[in-house]
Design a protein that fits this description.
The chain is mainly beta and 463 residues long. The chain has three domains: 116 residues, Spermadhesin, CUB domain (Jelly Rolls, Sandwich), CATH 2.60.120.290; 58 residues, Complement Module, domain 1 (Ribbon), CATH 2.10.70.10; 237 residues, Trypsin-like serine proteases (Thrombin, subunit H), CATH 2.40.10.10. Helix content is 11%, strand content 33%. It is built from five helices and 27 strands. Strands 22-23-24-27-26-25 form a six-stranded antiparallel beta barrel. Strands 19-16-17-18-21-20 form a six-stranded antiparallel β-sheet. It is elongated and about 110 Å long. It starts with a helix and ends with a helix. 36% of the residues are buried. InterPro entries: CUB_dom, Peptidase_S1_PA, Peptidase_S1_PA_chymotrypsin, Peptidase_S1A, Sperma_CUB_dom_sf, Sushi/SCR/CCP_sf, Sushi_SCR_CCP_dom, Trypsin_dom. One of its GO terms (molecular function) is serine-type endopeptidase activity. Keywords: Disulfide bond, EGF-like domain, Glycoprotein, Hydrolase, Immunity, Innate immunity, Phosphoprotein, Protease, Serine protease, Signal, Sushi. Pfam families: CUB, Trypsin.
Length: 463
């Protein structure tokens, strides 16, 4: 009976000793400190503080036998098997001495390993080390800002452990590729991470072809209607020794007709770019967007002897990105060699039916003409006008056989867009024509989908 009581007593003492709290601070010292440490030693300390905290370790004293790369005696500090420091030496000027600098653990644990060899000199013995550790609240810092987006707290505060934040893009102008929003939490390693432990914030991508203002299908530039603000947010007012148009296709990229840039000998200094308004009188009050470079299709070869508008396409790179809003948005680029729809819309600041330059952005809805009819029209005009070049597969016609509605001078470089799945795609660029809005005459457009690969390649190579 006495033996049983002794066993129960020992068990009770063991439980009470092991059931200890995780400390918020403490001291760690080498064996026998402040006396010299023993030889042939391998001692390990596992420090731990509560979740939501990290460990700050500060040495008040360190005197460990110095050796190259601390190969003799050393103190290693590790976190999850990753070495945060390996120390030896006597003075803070020694290469492997920590000095007064504290060590911060990525998480709530630290491991210290003290190793000594077979000697600790009797004449000048080394005393080892003494350190103090304390729990420091995990703080992930302010969430990084998201370009063209924002962030808000869902739970927690002060950027502390397990605080939950949500990133969002500035819709409807920008969006994440695969989600409307992305959640991040403050992790134990003091980094904001998503549910997949990824610390990289996904970028916000521009939304293309989705104006915030809808057009009336009944409304029908020459013979056109006044465009509401925001209905054609990809429209650019271009000045190159005269007025013309261009098209927003990215935050730093515009597309236009190559012959518009030919007027200024393809020099960027003479290209004035304006966006964000439907009135010329207002848009020119804005500061023009600086141009970084011009990129004309390499096979565009117009000349004074023959008006050859084949490959009439060029790109303009801006010096800085546009921030999109309801008045400035890109139109979508079609996949390579996409078939044309049957009808589309054209906008522009060109001549009106009175042959006066329009102060207002106008638009028209036009049917696309079959290629056979287009070819017959062009060949008929070539028989009359010797300086007109041939129709190629890189062009298409649009317009009404009875005339009355058409693009005209000043509209070149603007977009002919089609609509599919509530999204506008740029099908053509206003290129050339013979007279404006006359019966039997059609406007001729650069077929954009013939150049999609070139457009994307040019933008990728000139980022």
């Amino acid at each position: 009976m006495e033996r049983l009581q002794l066993i129960l007593c020992v068990l009770w003492v063991s439980v009470s000793v092991c059931d200890c709290e995780v400390l918020m601070y403490g001291h760690v010292q080498s064996p026998l400190y402040p006396k010299p440490y023993p030889a042939d030693l391998q001692k390990q300390w596992n420090l731990e503080v509560p979740h939501g905290y990290r460990i700050k370790l500060t040495f008040s004293y360190l005197d460990i036998e110095h050796s190259t790369n601390c190969t003799s005696d050393s103190l290693m500090v590790l976190y999850d098997r990753k070495v945060l420091g390996k120390f030896c030496g006597q003075r803070s000027t020694d290469a492997h001495h920590p000095g007064l600098k504290s060590i911060l653990s990525p998480g709530n644990r630290l491991q210290l390993v003290f190793v000594t060899d077979s000697s600790n000199p009797d004449l000048q013995p080394h005393l080892g080390f003494s350190a103090f550790y304390q729990a420091i609240v995990i703080n992930c810092g302010d969430p990084r800002p998201l370009l063209n987006g924002g962030v808000r707290f869902l739970s927690g505060s002060n950027n502390e452990y397990r605080s939950l934040i949500q990133y969002h893009c500035n819709e409807p102008y920008y969006t994440f590729k695969d989600a409307h929003h992305v959640n991040f939490s403050c992790a134990a390693d003091c980094k904001w991470r998503d549910s997949d432990e990824n610390a990289v914030i996904p970028p916000c991508y521009p939304v293309c072809g989705r104006p915030t203002v809808s057009l009336s299908e009944r409304e029908r530039v020459m013979g056109g209607k006044v465009a509401p603000a925001g209905a054609f947010p990809w429209q650019v007012f271009l000045r190159t020794r005269g007025r013309s148009g261009a098209i927003v296709i990215g935050d730093r990229w515009l597309m236009t007709a190559a012959h518009n840039l030919e007027r200024v000998n393809f020099t960027k200094e003479n290209v004035m770019v304006y966006v964000g308004d439907v009135l010329v009188s207002e848009i020119v009050k804005h500061r023009p967007l600086p141009v970084s470079s011009l990129h004309v299709h390499p096979e565009y070869k117009n000349n004074d002897m023959c008006l050859n508008f084949d490959n009439d396409i060029a790109l303009i790179k801006l010096s800085s990105p546009i921030t999109f809003n309801s008045n400035v948005m890109p139109v979508c680029l079609p996949p390579q060699d996409t078939e044309l729809e049957h009808v589309g819309w054209v906008s522009g600041f060109g001549l009106t039916e009175t042959y006066m330059a329009s102060n207002k952005l106008l638009y028209i809805k036009l049917p696309i003409v079959d290629q056979g009819t287009c070819h017959t029209f062009v060949e008929t005009e070539r028989a009359i006008h010797e300086d007109i070049g041939p129709l190629t597969d890189n062009m298409f016609c649009a317009g009404l056989p009875e005339g009355g509605e058409d693009t005209c001078i000043g509209d070149t470089g603007s977009a002919f867009v089609t609509k599919k799945n509530n999204t506008y795609w740029v099908a053509g660029i206003v290129s050339w024509g013979v007279e404006c809005a006359k019966p039997g005459k059609y406007g001729i457009y650069t077929h954009v989908s013939k150049y999609t690969n070139w457009i994307q390649k040019t933008m990728e190579e000139n980022q």
